[in-house]
Amino acid sequence: AMYYFDTALNSISQDRHAKKNKDIYLLLACYSDMGQLAKARKCLELIRNLKITKYGANEYYAFAKYYQLTNIPDSAIAYYKRVLQSTKTGYELYEASKALLNIYTQKGDLTQVARYSNEFIKLTDSLNFKANRQLAATEYNEFQYHLDRNRLQKSEYRQFVYRLILITAFIIIVLIILIFIELYIRKKQNYIK
To answer: How far is 1 from 36, CA to CA, in rounded Å?
Structure first.
């Protein structure tokens, strides 16, 4: 993955139309997640050269990840709060509130920890992780049922084949015995005549 990120970063660095390319924010977030400070700084430098003044939740999230990596928690908090203010989608709210909860826990601010832990729990419930886990378990159980049913069918087919072979062998043995008995009786009758 790192090779592809680096290739994208080099491509964006050489691109004269970088303003049109919003992937630099994604790279900033990814490099920050992976702890690649030098590459994250290069992304931030490219972003500053873009001179964009209006950002959305994804851009704020990338900045927050960078400041969290550089151990500037107050800036990270400010950007995570901007994420919370600028989006209504569950995943972004979930990630930002989780990050804020972790930062405030590290800082020891129990008031904010309580606030964001409540928000985090509400978001977790709203994203309905429990239902998704149950759905995944149901899908897995259905898959297992079909596997078990196929195994059972194969086992029944093998039993049928073995029974067929045994019945055929029994019939052949009985026929051979009857042939020997017939030959023995004919031989005895020829001997008596």
So the answer is: 13
